[in-house]
Protein: Flavin reductase domain protein FMN-binding protein
Organism: Polymorphum gilvum
Amino acid sequence: MFEELPLAEVYRLIEPGPVVLLTTADEGRANVMAMSWHMMMEFTPPLVACLVSGSYSFAALRATGECVIAIPDVGLAPKVVAAGNCSGRTVDKFREIGLTPLPAAEVGAPLVAECFANLECRVVDDGFVKRYNLFVLEVVRAWRDPAQAAPKTIHHTGYGHFVVDGETIALPSKMP
């Protein structure tokens, strides 16, 4: 009936949300990385937990306590993958990949012009960073592009495979 699934593949079943871009800026240098390990923790204020491993972005986020979560639609998928396949230590990813950084209002990290939404964030809890590389971020300013009315997000299912948002359904709910 069932067959055993290798534990290394469990993440492919419960990937938490759309692939996003996380931007940082440290010492005048902006960087962007692809990230899919994140989750909402609270509505008000909006809190997001995210896992940022020992990368160039990790060092910048630790140093500044600020970032932007930029949410791309499926049309940006090749650029999102490119952002995840190289290091900001050696490459100016914005220039190399062809993304446009824009100044944010509250944080030093840039917005990404091509994304349909950008969330300016500050680290509010780093108590899990040492053990799990898990940051808790508070969204302090949020932006959306009204020209991108019905964006479709991409969801990583492992090893270069993605699912694209599909049909939307509405069911009765008592949640606000």
